[in-house]
Amino acid sequence: MAADSPAGGVAFGVSARSCRAAGPGTPGVGKTTLGKELASRSGLKYINVGDLAREGELYDGYDEEYDCPILDEDRVVDELENQMSEGGVIVDYHGCDFFPERWFHIVFVLKTDNSVLYKRLETRGYNEKKLKDNIQCEIFQVLHEEALASYKEEIVHQLPSNTPEDLEDNINQILKWIEQWVKDHSS
């Protein structure tokens, strides 16, 4: 999968001690902002898969059409395996279908209104095809469907991500979920 292609979702993985969650979303929906802020407030470790891939050169070619490298998903999974088994991790990426199901206890799919998303992606300088394909991906909820196909339906939750208020609400909701998960799984 191309590292910025619209075909993926994000794995926004939250892992409190051994608790882990994923959070797919089209590029531009606010995954990184949410993931970093959640890590800051929860004390969990934040991993951006795009950064991890760049640093480790975890690529399998280049996608000329989308003007981005193609992620070597097997190498990414190998690179993350130990950290995920330890837990306490937030994983941020726009695709989630290649991550092992055992990695996540909950999946939060971020969704943004198309007009808001269009402006965000345009600001990033996406070419016309990349912009159009990512908007279509959001319209057809490709990443939500991908998450539902990859994980148990009861652990997949969709969250709005249009405004700063949505960000705050999402952080609070996820922090409450983490707190409850930790209580439920304490020995």
Structural write-up:
With 187 residues, this protein is α/β, with parallel strands linked by helices. It is built from seven helices and seven strands, in the order βαβαββαββαααβα. It has a three-stranded parallel sheet with strand order 1-6-7, with helices on both faces. Helix 1 (31-42) crosses helix 7 and helix 4 packs antiparallel against helix 5. The chain starts with 20 loop residues before the first strand and ends with a helix. Mean pLDDT is 87; it is low at 4-13. Its main location: cytoplasm. Keywords: ATP-binding, Cytoplasm, Kinase, Nucleotide-binding, Nucleus, Ribosome biogenesis, rRNA processing, Transferase. Its EC number is 2.7.4.3.
Topology at a glance:
Elements lengths: L20 E2 L8 H12 L2 E4 H8 L2 E5 L4 E4 L1 H14 L2 E4 L13 E6 L2 H10 L4 H12 L2 H9 L5 E5 L3 H21 L3
Task: Please give a handful of descriptors for the protein shown.
187 residues, alpha/beta, three-stranded parallel beta sheet, two-stranded parallel ribbon, 7 helices, 7 strands
How would you sum up the major sheet? 3 strands, parallel
* Structure class: alpha/beta
How widely separated are the two ends?
A: 40 Å
Q: Which of globular, elongated, flat, extended, rod-shaped describes the shape?
A: globular
How large is the share of residues in beta strands? Answer: 15-25%
Gyration radius, to the nearest Å? 15 Å
Q: What is the number of strand segments?
A: 7
* Strand neighbour order, sheet with most strands: 1-6-7
**Approximately how much helix is present in the residues?**
40-55%
Unreliable segments (pLDDT under 50, ≥5 consecutive)?
A: 4-13
Q: Give the topology string: H per helix, E per strand.
A: EHEHEEHEEHHHEH
User: Total number of helical segments?
Assistant: 7
Overall pLDDT confidence: 87
